[in-house]
Amino acid sequence: MKSFLEIFLGILTAMGGFVEIGELVFSVNAGVKFRYSLLWVEVLGTIGIIVFSEMSGRISAVTQQPVFSYIRERAGYGAGLLTLLAALVLIGLLAAVWFLSFQAIERIFGLLGLFLLIFVIAALNLGPSWGEAASGLIPSLPRVETTSDYWLYGYFVVALMSSIMLPYEVYFYASGAIEDGWNATMINANRMIILVGFPLGSLLSVALMFVGASYFQPQMIEPQLPGTAALAAAAVFGKWGLICAIAGMFFAFGGAAIENALTGAYNLSQFLGWNWGKYRTPKDAPRFHVTWMLMFVVAALIVMTGVDPVEVVEYSIIFAVVILPLTYLPILLAAADEDYMGTFKNGWLAKTLGWLYFATICIAALAAIPLLIITHGGKG
Fold it and tell me: Which domains does the chain have, with CATH numbers?
């Protein structure tokens, strides 16, 4: 019963923590600009994050070692440092992290992020075009007015893929497995959480695209701020729809901020061999706790400069594509290493999907910066 409850809570947490600010912004605007024609990217990205998260969770469960320990051991200091610096580029609720345990943080922000389900219900009530949506599951070029719109379409393909497969998600998931005390007996639970929780979470992202296509596009509105998306829920359900949407965004964005800060501290501590973990007191892991606090300080200083935080997120997601190969190659190699994983190494399916997705993200990484420049940051 305890194991079932842990899996069930893990699924809900994975679902509630799936959407963060970048994914919300890009999903809604993808629906506004291209209606349902980018749904195939949501499917592609979801399968990709499932593949690599399953590997990272399996590595942690079998070895009780985080990914960065493998990187430092097998790749050497120089290559490992490059991967570490690439991951820390993305690191942008201080009291919550200080006072709450890892499990409490995971459950509270993940579960309360489920308020975002209001967008799923709103999307259904707005009467989407199901035939058009079904055709959007097949990769194809949309009908556009100018050639430049094709470049913009490519930009959104890359941005959506990146927002779904952000590197911090797998690092946080792998470290969380160790925080939760996983071992090899949790491998099936790991697969259940990933295979059920992530696809359900992607429904939230799909719903946001539906909202963009069904509500904002007919009114020729291009939401520039995340909060604008809440207007769709308010239009369908009134005050309570607005409250649920804002509550969901608060906990989803707050959870993402915490995950980023902790991930930065996890990665640095694991690479340098420091004691780490929320289960350790500040006295037992002082450098780990100081590091995640500094992550919040740096993020606050960035906001205080007056820079548009949404624009920072959008650009960081595009630049994240460039480092995706550096993130996922070590996971792929570790999961396939028989000396490291023994009988739990990658099977033929994980190996095939892993290398196919690695090739895909390498292509996206090469295209990201040119598309950013050509489309002027997605502005056309």
Answer: 2-374 (1.20.1740.10)
Tell me the C-alpha distance between 367 and 205, whole Å. 23
Query: Contact at 8 Å (CB) between 36 and 217?
Result: no
Q: Does pTM top 0.70 for this prediction? A: yes
What is the band of 1 on the pLDDT scale with cuts at 50, 70, 90? Answer: very low
pLDDT band for position 9 (cuts 50, 70, 90):
low
Whole-number pLDDT of residue 106: 62
For 89-99, the pLDDT digits (tens) are 554 444 455 55
For the record, the structure tokens of 161 come out as 């893929």
Query: Residues 137, 39: contact at Cβ < 8 Å?
Result: yes
Cα–Cα distance for residue pair 214/379, rounded to 1 Å: 21
pLDDT at 100: 57
With 0-12 / 13-18 / 19 or more C-beta atoms within 10 angstroms meaning exposed / middle / buried, residue 359 is exposed
Distance of alpha carbon 222 from its chain centroid, rounded? 23
CA distances from 36 to 40, 42, 75, 364 (A): 9, 10, 42, 21
Chain centroid to CA 292: 19
Rounded Cα distance between 202 and 350, Å, is: 21
In sequence order, the 6+-apart residues with CB closer than 8 A to the CB of 20 are: 163, 166, 252, 253, 255, 256
348 sits in which H/E element: helix 348-374
pLDDT digit string (tens) for 185-203?
A: 888 888 888 888 888 888 8
Instruction: Identify the pLDDT of residue 167.
Output: 78
Cβ neighbour number for residue 34 with a 10 Å cutoff: 24
Whether residue 39 contacts residue 210, with contact meaning beta carbons closer than 8 Å, is answered with no
Local confidence band at 17 (pLDDT 50, 70, 90 cut-offs): low
Give the count of beta carbons closer than 10 Å to the beta carbon of residue 119.
Answer: 32
Q: 1-8: which pairs have CB atoms within 8 A and are 24 or more residues apart?
A: 3/189, 6/189, 7/189, 7/192, 7/193
CA distance 175 to 184: 15
The Cβ of residue 9 has, within 10 Å, a number of other Cβ atoms equal to 17
126: DSSP letter: T
